[in-house]
Design brief:
Elements lengths: L21 H5 L24 E2 L24 E7 L2 E6 L8 E5 L2 E3 L1 H9 L20 E8 L2 E8 L11 E2 L5 E8 L5 E6 L10 E2 L6 E7 L10 E5 L2
Parallel strand pairs: 1-9, 8-11
Antiparallel strand pairs: 2-3, 4-10, 5-7, 6-7, 9-10, 12-13
């Protein structure tokens, strides 16, 4: 799972924004624009692979346009109390459509391990500033990938370690989209990008649903116009 990828030999030529770059060719095309926005479709159900430049590449990290995961978010993100939905995450700065917001960090575990952990959580425990314990909260997201030769499924669990992305709530009409990326090895990583312009002060959200999700019995409180009324749940 941790097989290392070959690096590009672009050096300081700036070729990481063209097919001259090995990582760009492996990605089947450019993933990011020169201004740092996502160049691939935000709505296509069939996303192309995103393989970023990494430590084995000769390109300069400060000028390479094919690196997002190795850089800290440039946006000021803040955890806040949403009221009826517990804690959430908002942006204190404007975010343009296509911009990288943050990575969803956590443990990469199998679907079976995720199911066991989910069964050990306390149902409907309120998420508050004083209650974010590993036994009461569910910070699992599913990573589904589909290939011509089959499919793979992993889960990322941010309960035991992670970053502020774990406070991002679900919405049936989200302003973020998740994208599976890789940097230097075959370990999948989930990056979150803005799928529309987001104004400072807005809460950030993405859809917890996967292609195999069904509606759970837990009410969805996202407040979206097209809210499905219940939160998605991955039965597998």
């Amino acid at each position: 799972m941790d097989d290392r990828f070959m690096g590009c030999d672009c050096g300081d030529t700036g070729s990481c924004s063209s097919s001259d770059c090995l990582c760009v060719r492996l990605s089947l095309g450019v993933s990011y624009t020169p201004s740092g926005k996502l160049a691939t479709s935000l709505t296509s159900p069939h996303q192309k692979p995103v393989l970023e430049c990494h430590s084995e590449c000769s390109c300069k990290s400060n000028i390479c346009t094919n690196r997002m995961l190795s850089r800290k978010t440039k946006h000021n993100l803040q955890v806040f109390d949403t009221g009826n939905r517990g804690l959430g995450l908002m942006t204190k700065t404007d975010i343009c459509k296509g911009e990288f917001v943050c990575e969803y960090l956590g443990e990469l575990i199998s679907a079976d391990a995720a199911k066991a952990r989910l069964e050990s959580t306390t149902p409907d425990a309120p998420q508050t500033a004083g209650n974010t314990s590993s036994s009461s909260m569910n910070y699992l997201i599913t990573v589904n990938e589909y290939f011509t030769s089959g499919s793979s499924r992993w889960c990322i669990d941010a309960r035991r370690f992670g970053n502020i992305a774990r406070f991002i709530n679900h919405s049936c009409q989200p302003n973020l989209v998740s994208l599976v990326c890789r940097a230097g090895c075959d370990v999948p990583r989930v990056a979150l990008f803005a799928c529309r312009d987001i104004a400072a002060g807005e809460e950030l959200s993405f859809s917890y649903a996967s292609p195999d999700s069904v509606l759970s019995t837990k009410p969805c409180l996202c407040g979206a116009k097209d809210c499905k009324l219940f939160l998605p749940f991955d039965v597998t």
